[in-house]
């Protein structure tokens, strides 16, 4: 009798677990896929996160990390004590909210999807338009952020782009960008040590290390595991900035082009754990570091560049960027420049080789 009761209890527990799992899956909004003849992008129904990007030539290698490319808005990093008490989560609300599909187009020369996200705590509404054009290895993203407040306010906005395994590989993945002045950010010590000197300024890409040496931050280290954060100012002389991740063995290139006035900073989250959870953040943003609004405003300017951006009362702020994913010539080793003009992206490698991609919609 006792054994029978135990068996019934176990079966009931298993049934409840299965029901809970099914309920969780049923409550999760469905993923969305936007594709053309070159690329396939998977977008999560929660937060509109870009979770997977594939070339449609049969090789299933996505450059995106497990956490994908999500939007940190209106908050980047930990909220202040007051914001936390009011319910504001880490990295803001945008990545946690269910998105609403306003419109979509799955055929014709231009494929698109328009998503709306409500941010009730920040009293903001985000409308995000994602587009692809047939024959192009490019995705265009336009974001319109509308304020519901009758007061100007500083905003925190980061495109939290991350690459991960198998695209992120020790000694085989390099990151390039037109950065100038940089600063190492302190972080709370964890199981993985940092190799960089905290709160030390440097010129990209050579950062000071704790052993009195220098680390080339372009490279994913092949020897040890490290966790470091560093933020860099995008070259103020440029109208358009970029960041790229090149896999030297796979001859694949993933990158972004964005308006520097929208995102004057890029934070490198170098979470080199040596396992499937490894990630390299290429987080272009309105501010240098993932800190609260109060701290962000207090540190402005840094290197002569503002560290926050205003969202005027009852106004709408628009930003725009594009991403691309493509195969490269075998001799590509270091991206010196990415130029967007005349409906084309021209990628210039240190070898002197160039890669030209159609990009008809521009920025």
Could you explain the architecture of this structure?
The strands form 6 sheets. Strands 4, 10, 11, 13, 14, 17, 20 and 21 form an 8-stranded antiparallel sheet that branches. The protein has an 8-stranded antiparallel sheet with strand order 5-6-7-8-23-19-18-12, with no helix packed on it. It has a 3-stranded antiparallel sheet with strand order 1-2-3, with no helix packed on it. The longest helix has 26 residues, at 2-27. Residues 1-25 have low confidence and may be disordered. It has 363 residues and is mainly beta. The chain has one domain (32-358): Beta-galactosidase, Chain A, domain 5, CATH 2.70.98. It contains 3 helices and 26 strands.
Write the layout of secondary structure elements.
Blueprint: H1 2-27, E1 32-35, E2 39-43, E3 50-55, E4 70-73, H2 81-85, E5 100-105, E6 110-119, E7 124-133, E8 138-147, E9 153-155, E10 157-160, E11 162-163, E12 173-176, E13 179-185, E14 201-203, E15 206-208, E16 214-216, E17 226-234, E18 240-247, E19 252-259, E20 265-272, E21 279-285, H3 293-298, E22 309-311, E23 316-327, E24 335-341, E25 344-349, E26 354-358
Antiparallel strand pairs: 1-2, 2-3, 4-10, 5-6, 6-7, 7-8, 8-23, 9-22, 10-21, 11-21, 12-18, 13-14, 13-17, 15-16, 17-20, 18-19, 19-23, 20-21, 24-25, 25-26
Tertiary shape:
globular
Distance between the termini: 73 Å
Mean pLDDT across residues? 92
CATH topology label? Beta-galactosidase, Chain A, domain 5
The Rg value, from CA coordinates, equals 22 Å
Number of strands: 26
Strand content: 35-45%
CATH classification, class level = Mainly Beta
Helix/strand order: HEEEEHEEEEEEEEEEEEEEEEEHEEEEE
Structural class: mainly beta
Low-confidence stretches: 1-25
Largest sheet geometry? 8 strands, antiparallel
Q: If helices are DSSP runs of H or I spanning 4 or more residues, what is the number of helices?
A: 3
Helix content, binned percent: 10-25%
Kindly give the count of domains: 1
Named CATH architecture? Distorted Sandwich
């Amino acid at each position: 009798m006792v054994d029978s009761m135990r068996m019934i209890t176990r079966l009931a527990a298993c049934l409840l677990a299965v029901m809970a799992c099914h309920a969780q899956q049923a409550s999760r909004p469905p993923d969305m896929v936007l594709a053309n003849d070159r690329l396939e992008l998977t977008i999560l129904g929660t937060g509109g996160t870009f979770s997977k990007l594939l070339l449609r030539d049969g090789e299933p290698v996505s450059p995106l990390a497990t956490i994908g490319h999500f939007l940190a808005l209106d908050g980047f990093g930990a909220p202040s004590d007051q914001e936390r008490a009011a319910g504001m989560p880490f990295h803001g609300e945008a990545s946690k909210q269910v998105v609403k599909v306003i419109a979509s187009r799955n055929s014709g020369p231009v494929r698109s999807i328009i998503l709306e996200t409500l941010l009730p705590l920040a009293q903001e509404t985000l409308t995000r338009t994602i587009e692809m054009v047939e024959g192009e290895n490019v995705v265009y993203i336009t974001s319109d952020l509308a304020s519901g407040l009758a007061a100007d306010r500083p905003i925190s906005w980061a495109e939290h782009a991350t690459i991960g395994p198998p695209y992120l590989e020790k000694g085989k993945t390099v990151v390039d960008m037109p950065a100038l002045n940089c600063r190492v950010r302190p972080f709370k010590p964890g199981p993985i040590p940092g190799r960089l000197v905290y709160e030390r300024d440097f010129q990209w890409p050579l950062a000071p290390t704790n052993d009195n040496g220098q680390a080339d931050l372009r490279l994913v280290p092949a020897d040890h595991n490290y966790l470091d954060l560093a933020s860099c100012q995008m070259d103020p002389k440029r109208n358009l900035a970029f960041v790229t991740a090149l896999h030297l063995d796979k001859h694949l290139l993933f990158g972004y082009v964005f308006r520097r006035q929208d995102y004057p900073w890029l934070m490198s989250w170098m979470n080199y754990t040596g396992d499937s959870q490894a990630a390299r953040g290429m987080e272009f943003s309105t501010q240098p570091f993932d800190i609260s609004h109060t701290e962000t405003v207090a540190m402005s300017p840094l290197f002569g560049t503002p560290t926050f951006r205003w969202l005027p009362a009852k106004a709408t702020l628009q930003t725009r960027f594009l991403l691309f994913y493509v195969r490269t010539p075998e001799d590509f080793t270091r991206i010196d420049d990415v130029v967007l003009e005349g409906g084309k992206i021209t990628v210039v490698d240190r070898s002197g080789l160039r890669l030209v991609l159609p990009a008809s919609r521009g920025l």
